């Protein structure tokens, strides 16, 4: 009994203060995975304590999860939305004229997530590798582009929105369907353009009508857990299906998705799957 209380005492005082052990239990999180950030709870396998498979940082003052890597200028990359069905998160990528390609790659890549192939990146500056006769995968209206350049305050860089000044790189046509392969942006394709900066990004979303909508200033990241469905250590919940996915590093990872009509994160260590309220 005595040891039990000592254990609890240590647990309470050794955990980071902004995380709460009791809420991790209350929300059904995995062992010591706290998924609370201020008033926000994130879906497993995300969380804010070392026991979570994918650890995010928390800006508790605005109850907002942020990517763990802070940009060179202190730029924080906020998580805007999670989608447990598609195993994706959308993060804000504020327009910037001083975010190098390597920095963008570092910020947006983690051990268990990477930029999805539905994300198009807008690059600027130099772009000596650009091949004007071969569109790299997406285009953007001139008006939108000059607005982006103004927002980013690319001072002294002029208003040049010619193809040589701004390149857009996307990996996949907007309407191809998800598969094991081709889930992630090919950074090699981005680096080949030899541009200085990643100005901003867009998520190419195909509507039911078949038209593409563009959300500027956002990037979609896909995530996975290590191991395949056959040997995955993180178990999918009872009503979830497991899918293998090829990670940007080339290995296989896996994802869990709740059965159609059910909600939840799909993990037995998380909230599992449950019937929605509707
Ligand atoms: C997954 O594997 C990578 C190495 O391939 C490792 O860096 C990472 O920490 C692992 N993630 C988890 C959640 O175990
Ligand atoms: C997740 O993505 C799927 C497919 O794009 C979409 O149908 C669903 O509404 C999304 N869920 C949320 C919570 O945004
Ligand atoms: C930081 O921001 C300033 C002003 O916006 C810019 O001049 C500088 O190049 C930036 N530095 C980095 C490393 O992004
Ligand atoms: C540019 O793209 C065209 C069409 O894809 C190709 O034929 C040409 O070889 C490319 N040029 C360079 C320099 O890569
Ligand atoms: C950019 O364009 C705006 C109007 O389109 C113009 O007022 C401004 O002087 C231009 N800036 C530069 C640096 O060319
Ligand atoms: C989009 O999908 C249609 C039918 O599914 C296909 O014929 C067309 O080639 C696709 N477009 C692209 C750019 O892949
Ligand atoms: C969920 O799982 C239970 C038990 O395995 C099963 O009886 C039920 O049919 C499943 N529901 C759906 C929607 O897959």
TrEMBL record:
Residue ranges of every copy of the Wall-associated receptor kinase galacturonan-binding domain listed in the record: 33-91
Membrane topology qualifier: Single-pass membrane protein
Domain of life: Eukaryota
Matching InterPro entries: WAK_GUB
Signal peptide: 1-20
Compartments, as annotated in UniProt: Membrane
GO molecular function terms attached to this record: polysaccharide binding
Keyword Signal appears in the UniProt entry: yes
Keywords from the UniProt entry: Signal
GO cellular component: membrane
Regions that span the bilayer: none
Pfam families in the cross-refs: GUB_WAK_bind (PF13947)
Major place of residence: membrane
Protein's name in the database: Wall-associated receptor kinase galacturonan-binding domain-containing protein
Organism of origin: Triticum turgidum subsp. durum
């Amino acid at each position: 009994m005595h040891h039990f209380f000592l254990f609890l005492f240590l647990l309470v005082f050794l955990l980071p203060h902004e995380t709460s052990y009791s809420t991790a239990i209350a929300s059904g999180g995995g062992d010591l995975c706290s998924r609370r950030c201020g008033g926000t709870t994130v879906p497993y396998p995300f969380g804010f304590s070392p026991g979570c498979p994918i650890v995010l940082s928390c800006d508790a003052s605005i109850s907002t999860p942020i990517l763990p890597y802070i940009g060179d200028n202190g730029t924080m990359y906020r998580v805007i939305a999670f989608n447990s069905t598609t195993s994706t998160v959308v993060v804000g990528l504020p327009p910037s004229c001083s975010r190098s390609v390597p920095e963008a790659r570092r910020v947006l890549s983690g051990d268990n997530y990477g930029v999805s192939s539905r994300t198009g990146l807008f690059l600027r500056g130099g772009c000596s590798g650009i091949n004007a006769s071969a569109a790299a995968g997406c285009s953007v209206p001139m008006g939108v582009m000059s607005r982006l350049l103004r927002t980013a305050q690319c001072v002294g860089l002029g208003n040049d929105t010619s193809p040589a000044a701004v390149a857009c790189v996307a990996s996949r046509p907007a309407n191809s369907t998800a598969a094991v392969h081709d889930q992630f942006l090919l950074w090699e394709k981005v680096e080949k353009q030899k541009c200085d900066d990643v100005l901003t990004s867009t998520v190419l979303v195909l509507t039911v009508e078949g038209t593409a909508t563009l959300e500027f200033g956002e990037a979609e990241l896909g995530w996975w857990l290590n191991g395949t469905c056959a040997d995955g250590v993180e178990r999918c919940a009872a009503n979830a299906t497991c899918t293998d996915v090829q990670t940007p590093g080339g290995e296989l990872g896996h994802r869990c998705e709740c059965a159609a009509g059910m909600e939840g994160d799909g993990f037995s260590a998380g909230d599992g799957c449950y019937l929605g309220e509707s």
